[in-house]
Inverse folding.
């Protein structure tokens, strides 16, 4: 199962379990704020080779209709995807 | 057909973690879990991957996962495997992910014990060549010459004076059913090895080079390239140990320039020509040994 | 039920067999070895269905048991002395993770100097690691504790690991006639281990995670409450135990002729047998003396001790332990219990039996005699040489 963002974080004593044990993949914060630059995909150039998807350390690139798309909530902007793209379909753009 | 980018499980099991941008270790963990699937039970010792993945209430493993003691990756894996089997559960993978320090230093005894017992576990060492989680201190897998915060490069001593311990061959010397080396620069090779290991009964060990941009002094987008280059220049090699035999998986036609590999990284920038010669000689000696002892395809 | 002639170690092993642990991981250390040897034989002859893991160290023994417990398997390990210290990191791990593992500890001196004989410095040095700590007096109690330990540790309100302590050699290697219950009786007593605190392939979880300053206190508070809850679980276990097996135990402490006693000796472990005999002998001489045996050091019997001692003229604590630079650990705890209940009875502390040094009936009689006099607060007995 892919971890996903939840609406609330456990806070009260009763929400915190007896043991340090909790539901898998429970996310309460995003990583978007880490980025200075963001990868942008040019769909015209993308050939769907999936090398960016394969090599992304954060797993934020996913298959999307024969091409790829990016989950910007969790992309840290490392730029590996751009390096892996043989067709030049990914450009890094400054975050505003 | 063996697994590749197109056939790989689309589910993500290590997601939303707080690893540094461009982290090679997190890439190794992510890919291995995608190959092994949702019925993997992951054990991670105190170290980078547990520190970035298990901060309650931000829990970044989608599968079953637990932190072990620093020294206890292998022994906890043993307990997990035995505990599930004792309850009649057999369709799972007990997989450990430990760093170089957690494997070659503090966790070596427990790993050796598990291999000795031939426990049915897969142990993956993501090797970033120093104690990165605590701030880049030398481990026994830090290569010769590397500057770390405990092997500073100064006038008297130029970084780490000792060569990298050969974990792959130490593990193989136990007579382990399967061991392999890998690099996050060659993920197809790594994925095939994980897939193969998952089908073998007994103890399996995969040692994957996983560069750390923070500790190696490279840009965050250079992780994969440098992990490829370390193989291409011959300072790391892709190999397997199976049925008592070593096998080389990839022979670069011609080694790329060692100096170029080293000087890209700030941890090696202080090295003298003489140091680089020493590194070249040790690489060549290693490859002579590989040619003498390994099956070459 | 069958009568057998068993050592403390063997009796404990028979108790563990009745509890049917699914995973046993252990590393040998004197004087614990016989319990794991016996269990190995039971696995070999098929009378115990358990995964027996030959680990390469005590650290791995407990780490492996934690792994097994983390997937919901009942786990057992055993150790002693240096082994307990070597696995110390895993002690807080097991308790913080709320894994109800049972461990037998053969109480033994800690180096240096090297010494294989019994004292209680090993377990008492780990009193704060979050485990339930029980001390058996004889082989029958050892067997019964082995069985009850899982009931208490796995109790829903407790979920805390259990360390059962047996005095090295004096108890672990001494043979006594022991009643060994049948498997049917044991199964009627001990429910199957069920927990939600586990890695579950149908309901995946992340375990043993980090909790920063915001949440850490909540987890530690819950751990503390879990350990305190063990007191009720002990009572519940012993009541059910009596129903099925007939033998009766008395909770966190055992009082012997303390009701009208002027002078009370508080101690723990196997030495209590000799103290009991001495109490009887002195009673015949008209001396109003009594014994209070601490059965559990954690949870600590604060109320029980205050209640037993409140009408006495003086009390002494005899323990095989010293917290260097201060006093015996048990003594510190006892004084705290009395103080909290406003019991103002003078106390003193006798440190004896270190490294297996014999404590004689005369030593015990002397302690009772001294209780009516002015005396040093903390004193060693059996120093030898010039030290007396």
């Amino acid at each position: 199962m892919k971890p996903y963002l939840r609406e609330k974080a456990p806070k009260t004593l009763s929400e915190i379990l007896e043991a340090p044990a909790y539901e898998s993949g429970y996310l309460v914060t995003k990583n978007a704020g880490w980025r200075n630059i963001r990868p942008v995909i040019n769909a015209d150039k993308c050939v769907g080779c999936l090398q960016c998807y394969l090599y992304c350390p954060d797993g934020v690139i996913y298959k999307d209709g024969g091409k790829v798309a990016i989950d910007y909530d969790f992309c840290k902007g490392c730029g590996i995807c751009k390096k892996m793209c043989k067709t030049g379909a990914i450009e890094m753009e400054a975050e505003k | 057909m063996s697994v590749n980018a197109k056939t790989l499980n689309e589910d993500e099991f290590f997601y939303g973690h707080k690893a540094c941008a461009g982290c090679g270790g997190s890439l190794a963990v992510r890919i291995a879990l995608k190959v092994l699937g949702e019925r993997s039970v992951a054990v991670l010792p105190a170290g980078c991957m547990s520190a970035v993945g298990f901060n309650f209430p931000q829990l970044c493993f989608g599968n079953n996962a637990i932190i072990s003691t620093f020294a206890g990756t292998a022994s906890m894996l043993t307990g997990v495997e035995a505990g599930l089997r004792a309850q009649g559960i057999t369709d799972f993978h007990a997989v450990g992910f430990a760093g170089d320090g957690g494997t070659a230093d503090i966790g070596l005894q427990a790993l050796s014990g598990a291999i000795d017992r031939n426990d049915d576990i897969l142990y993956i060492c993501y090797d970033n060549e120093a104690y990165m989680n605590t701030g880049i201190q030398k481990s026994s897998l830090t290569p010769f010459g590397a500057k770390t915060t405990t092997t500073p490069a100064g006038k008297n001593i130029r970084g780490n004076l000792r060569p990298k311990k050969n974990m792959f061959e130490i593990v193989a010397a136990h007579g382990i059913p399967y061991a392999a080396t890998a690099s996050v620069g060659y993920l197809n090779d790594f994925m095939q090895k994980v897939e193969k290991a998952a089908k073998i009964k007994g103890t399996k060990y995969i040692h994957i080079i996983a560069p750390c941009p923070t500790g190696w002094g490279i840009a965050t987008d250079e992780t994969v390239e440098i992990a490829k280059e370390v193989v291409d220049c011959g300072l790391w090699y892709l190999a397997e140990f199976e049925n008592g035999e070593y096998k080389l998986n990839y022979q670069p036609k011609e080694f790329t320039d060692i100096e170029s590999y080293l000087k890209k990284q700030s941890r090696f920038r202080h090295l003298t020509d003489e140091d680089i010669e020493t590194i070249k000689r040790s690489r060549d000696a290693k490859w002579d040994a590989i040619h003498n002892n390994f099956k070459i395809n | 039920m069958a009568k057998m002639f068993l050592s403390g170690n063997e009796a404990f092993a028979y108790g563990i067999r009745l509890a049917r642990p699914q995973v046993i991981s252990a590393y040998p250390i004197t004087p614990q070895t016989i319990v794991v040897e016996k269990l190995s034989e039971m696995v070999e002859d098929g009378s115990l269905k358990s995964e027996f893991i030959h680990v390469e160290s005590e650290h791995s023994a407990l780490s492996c048991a934690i792994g097994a417990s983390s997937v919901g398997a009942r786990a057992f390990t055993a150790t002693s002395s240096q082994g307990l210290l070597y696995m110390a990191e895993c002690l807080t791990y097991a308790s913080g993770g709320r894994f109800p593992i049972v461990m037998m500890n053969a109480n033994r001196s800690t180096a240096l100097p090297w010494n294989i004989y019994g004292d209680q410095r090993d377990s008492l040095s780990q009193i704060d690691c979050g485990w339930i700590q029980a001390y058996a007096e004889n082989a029958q109690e050892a067997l019964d504790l082995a069985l009850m330990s899982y009931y208490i540790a796995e109790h829903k309100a407790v979920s805390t690991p259990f360390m059962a302590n047996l005095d090295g050699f004096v108890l672990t290697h001494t043979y006594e006639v022991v009643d060994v219950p049948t498997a049917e009786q044991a199964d009627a007593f001990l429910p199957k281990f069920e927990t939600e605190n586990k890695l579950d392939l149908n309901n995946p979880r992340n375990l043993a995670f980090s909790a920063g300053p915001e949440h850490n206190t909540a987890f530690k508070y819950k751990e503390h409450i879990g350990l305190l809850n063990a007191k009720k679980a002990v009572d519940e276990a012993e009541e059910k135990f009596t129903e099925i097996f007939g033998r009766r135990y008395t909770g966190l402490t055992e009082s012997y002729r303390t009701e009208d006693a002027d002078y009370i000796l508080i101690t723990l472990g196997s030495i209590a047998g000799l103290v009991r005999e001495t109490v009887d002998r002195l009673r015949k001489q008209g001396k109003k003396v009594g014994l209070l045996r601490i059965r559990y050091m954690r949870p600590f019997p604060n109320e029980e001790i205050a209640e037993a001692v409140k009408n006495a003229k003086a009390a002494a604590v005899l323990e095989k332990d010293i917290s260097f630079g201060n006093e015996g650990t048990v003594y510190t705890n006892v004084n705290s219990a009395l103080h909290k209940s406003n019991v103002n009875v003078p106390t003193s502390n006798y440190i004896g039996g270190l490294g297996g040094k014999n404590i004689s009936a005369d030593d015990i009689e002397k302690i009772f005699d001294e209780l009516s006099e002015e005396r040093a607060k903390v004193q060693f007995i059996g120093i030898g040489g010039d030290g007396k």
